[in-house]
Amino acid sequence: MTYQITQHKWFKPALFLAIGLLLGWILFGGSHENNNDHENHDLAEMSESGEEIWTCSMHPSVREDGPGSCPICGMDLIPASSESEEGDYSMVMTEASMSLADIQTAEITRSVPEISIYTTGKITPNEQTLSQITGNFHGRVTDLYVDFTGAVVEEGQRLFSIYSDDLISAQRELIEAAKNRTANPGLYRAAVQKLRYWDIRNEQIDAILQQGEPEQNMDIQSPSDGVVMARNITENGHVYEGDLLYEIADLRSVWVQFDLFESDVSGLQAGDQITFGVKSFPGEEFEGTVSFVDPTLDPNRRTARARVEVENNDLRLKPEMLVTGNIDVQSSGEQLLVPRSAVLWTGPRSLVYVKDSEADTPRFESREVVLGQRSGDYYIVEEGLEEGDDVVFNGAFKVDSEFQLADKFSMMNREPGSGAVPAGHQHGDMDETEMEEEDHSEHESESESQTMDDESSDEFSEEFTELLEIYLELKDDLIESNLNKAVETADQFRTELEEIGEHHLEGDAHTAWMESYSANMEQIESMAETDDIEEYREAFSRLSDQLIEDVKTFGIEGVVYHQYCPMAFDNEGADWLSRDEEIRNPYFGDQMMNCGEVIERIE
Questions:
Q1: Strand, coil or helix: what is 399?
Q2: Can you give the pLDDT at residue 274?
Q3: Domains and CATH numbers, the chain
Q4: What is the distance in angstroms between the CA of the first residue and the CA of the last residue of the chain?
Q5: At what angle do helices 533-554 and 483-500 cross, to 10 degrees?
Q6: How much is the pLDDT for 434?
Q7: Choosing a second label site near 384 at 20 to 30 A (CA), which of 221, 262, 474, 542?
Q8: Strand pairing partners for 162?
Q9: Model pLDDT, residue 248
């Protein structure tokens, strides 16, 4: 028997649709779903009314009574399996959501950290080669042979001549004691020693004894080779006992003094190697070994100094030259290291997300960690992780967003399960009384959330105000044209900015601060790339523009004045902030300190 098939105009589309459904069933449902149909039904999460709950793989906080699209991202909803019900510190994500969010993980291991501390400093005379010439008796300077600071002198070179009644009397005592030297050798030795204490050299003493008469104008000679660092004496001027007359330093050996922040001091010790550059010799590198680290901190600047002794036979390195360096800190052994990109900073708290490698589906856990020093692109882990943990190093912020939406422990949610992040509405068939009760509950939840927001805002306000104070200190450094101090203050600004972190607020304020954080960090990093004070001022101008907007956006404690100079940078103009209404311009130094005007008062 044969059959004749009549093809209608709707036959081909219907056929294609059937084939598509069949392929979809094979690829995404298949026999596996059929075989486990009852099992999945048992695992499906049900609402109170007994209906299956559907959620979004990218936004688990979405809870709907049936299939559809995610109201946040538009993805198709999937059944919310009871397998995904985790504790407050963990959550399951699908492979699709991981791929879409580009989440990547890596195992952390132990290795010897390569710690390099960036620091700034300056060249100073070697204190061990300093010589001071002081007044040992009252007298008058008759001749001044070395009459300017910076003069190079040799040991035994005449510095000045002096007339002194005390010195003449001491010479006479020497001559008389020499006559009775055999009978009273002790008196002779005492007379000689007295002149030696007064910096009279042995050859001068011999000359006095040879001529048998006191020298009316006695030459005072240099006790060492070196450069005159200080001169406090004038011709025909009077000298008194205890006066500092000259300070001479042998600059064939100099110190390089580096300032270290409190967080860097603990890992540094004598013997660590340092490579540093000097502004006067761009592109040239110098090397040295840390010979001493201050045992105490400067209480005002919260820094300690590390000292490097450097040979300087050609006298190229001069005191007060500015230097920048990297100190390679010696590690005591292998340490547990976590990628820098895996760490989410929220002020004093640090958070990482760890993937459960044994779970059948991607499961992540939030963990607070205690970190040590930075080692390149890694941090040393003190507490919170173990070797072999699989941490999220790419997409950690996206994972954190999902934790926050699901009301789980995350950067911005310290009280998981408190309802601070609402999971949506499911009124169903509630009557008016039940809806009023739910609305009342929602208001209470909103109140709790608002309290948390206020606490976070207050904490941020304090930290932002502290950041502004460091900026104002940087402004004062530029007013004084003190580049060395400005470099130190800029480093403090960066440290404080990193302590605040990007993710300290919520909602629109969070987005605004992330943009501001990036802009502020960009300008402070541009300062670290130059040692020219004019380029520093240009970067400071851009930093000021951003902070003026930040102060208006986030507010501060107290009052600041927005000030402006139209003549800065070849009449392009520049702004800055100040606590004082009085104009003190940071862009000209001493030349035009009072150039400018107050634009507005901000409080």
A1: helix
A2: 87
A3: 11-101 (no CATH), 117-126+251-329 (2.40.30.170), 127-249 (2.40.50.100), 454-602 (no CATH)
A4: 96
A5: 30
A6: 43
A7: 262
A8: 141, 218
A9: 94
d(CA 106, CA 377): 14
Residue 49's φ and ψ, nearest 5 degrees, are: -85, 0
pLDDT at 234 (0 to 100): 92
CA dihedral 143, 148, 149, 154 (to 10 degrees): -60
Q: What is the 3-state secondary structure (H, E, C) of 107-121?
A: ECCEECCCEEEEEEE
Element at 548 (helix H, strand E): helix 533-554
Q: Which tokens in the block code for residue 563?
A: 């000030």
Closest CA to 327 of 290, 355, 296: 290
Task: Give every CB contact of residue 6 below 8 A, 6+ residues apart in sequence.
Answer: none
The answer for 261, left when phi > 0, alpha when psi is -120 to 50, beta otherwise, is: beta
pLDDT value at position 50?
Answer: 57
Residue that the structure tokens 């019900």 belong to? 85
How many Å apart are CA 401 and CA 314, to the nearest integer? 60
Q: Are 246 and 148 in contact (CB under 8 A)?
A: no
Backbone angles phi, psi at 158, to 5 degrees: -70, 135
Residue with tokens 């100094």: 305
Burial of 28 (0-12, 13-18, 19+ CB in 10 A): exposed
- SS3 labels along 129-179: HEEEEECCCCEEEEEECCCCCCCEECCCCEEEEEECHHHHHHHHHHHHHHH
Count the neighbouring beta carbons within 10 Å of the beta carbon of residue 216.
12
**What is the model's pLDDT at position 429?**
40
Nearest to 251 by CA among 306, 310, 293: 310
SS3 of residue 312 by DSSP: coil
CA-CA distances (angstroms) from residue 383 to 369, 379, 435?
Answer: 6, 12, 47
Which two structure tokens, joined as six digits, stand for 218? 């006695």
Q: What is the 3-state secondary structure (H, E, C) of 186-203?
A: HHHHHHHHHHHHCCCCHH
Contact 227, 249 (CB under 8 A): yes
Positive or negative, the CA dihedral 575, 580, 582, 585 is: negative
Low-confidence ranges of the chain (pLDDT < 70): 1-51, 57-61, 73-75, 80-87, 94, 267, 330-332, 345-349, 412, 414, 417-458, 504, 507-508, 590-591
Whole-angstrom Cα distance, residue 489 to residue 497?
12
Cα distances (angstroms) measured from residue 241 to each of 131, 133, 138, 244: 17, 11, 6, 9
What 8-state DSSP symbol labels residue 55? Answer: E
The SS3 assignment for 308 reads: strand
Helix 165-179 × helix 185-197 angle, to 10°: 150
- The alpha helices in 340-481, defined as continuous H runs, are 396-405, 432-479
Tokens 């890694």 locate to 378
DSSP, collapsed to helix, strand or coil, labels residue 315 as coil
Asked whether 124 and 254 are in contact (CB, 8 A), the reply is yes
pTM of this structure = 0.47
